[in-house]
Amino acid sequence: IWEYKKADQSRSSDVSATQHSFTILPIIKADGTLGEQLYVVLQEPGGRFPQKGHVKLDNLIVRAASTHIMTKSLMLDWFKECVAHPFSPTVSCTPGKEINDSDSDSNDSAHIFRPMLEYHWKKAGYIYSVIPNFKTPVQICFPPGIDSTTCHTSSCAEDSFIPCPHCNRSYCFGCYFIKYHKC
Length: 183
Hints:
alpha+beta; two-stranded antiparallel sheet
């Protein structure tokens, strides 16, 4: 269980103690939806997680390594866990035809991001549909004046940090990320 406490600024003579390197591999489908799992590689001392203090989620595959850079074995693990996983939909690609996704509504990605994610497939020439104008993630997640509102959680009086892309309610950092807001 995570407990949220306001962080105090501190100083460290060791820059590596305040910075972390990681790699994130999302699956982005042709219709702009995200895959069911997110794969993250964290650079950890000795390539191992501490015994305690990390959370496990069904839709998040996290691996510790001595470097955050993908290796052949990590790439094979990503393919096995996220691409060729039994719940992954079948994706077929034939030159000159669109990619067909058999199960595009089965994931949690917010509809507001779909045109932006679909745009990359169109730009690469894999799909031919017209992509509507879209807002960038910064425009969606950090609109002007977001910090002038109060967190939507009834027991919280903190300033808002981010609007939820699903329900459009604004939350502070702790309520959204640490307490893991989910609509």
